[in-house]
Design a protein that fits this description.
Layout (H helix, E strand, L loop, with lengths): L4 H5 L10 H17 L30 H18 L3 E9 L9 E12 L2 E12 L5 E5 L6
């Protein structure tokens, strides 16, 4: 299996004896980088080119209280992961209802997928928090039993 793209760039290639937990953390960091990248519309004629479809659009204009806006972001995350993260299969992105301590300008999602690892796959879950006012995205492995 090829090392993840971001780790090739940073010379942190996978060793054959990496643990599954360490691999999940690597994928988690790569997901943060992928979703933190802002989509480029510099050349709209190339909209089918994966390079120009990489990353999320600017989220500043979205309202976290709007069901339509949350559904839009949910669909975009799913689309981006399916297009640009070949290590994940059977991806499911779920909206998480607001928590009492959640700030008004946040959207919360669970990402559930099968992670290809060595010659097998394992179910992984990630919690993501999107700050719509700043565009900051945090992703971390979910606690077992979150979904």
């Amino acid at each position: 299996m090829k090392p993840p793209f971001w780790h090739i760039l940073t010379n942190a290639a996978l060793s054959p004896d990496i643990s599954s937990d360490a691999y999940v953390n690597i994928v988690c960091k790569d997901l943060m980088l992928l979703l933190s990248t802002k989509k480029s519309y510099a050349n709209s004629k190339k909209k089918d080119n994966k390079l120009f479809n990489y990353g999320l659009t600017d989220l500043n204009r979205l309202n976290p209280d709007s069901n339509d806006d949350r559904s839009y972001v949910q669909a975009k995350i799913q689309e981006i992961l399916e297009s640009h993260e070949p290590r994940l299969r059977n991806i499911l992105v779920l909206q998480v209802e607001s928590k009492p301590k959640q700030t008004v300008l946040q959207m919360l999602f669970h990402i559930k997928a099968d992670l290809l690892f060595a010659s097998s796959s394992q179910l992984v879950m990630f919690d993501s928090t999107i700050e719509t006012s700043t565009g900051y995205i945090n992703i971390q492995p979910a606690n077992t039993g979150t979904l």
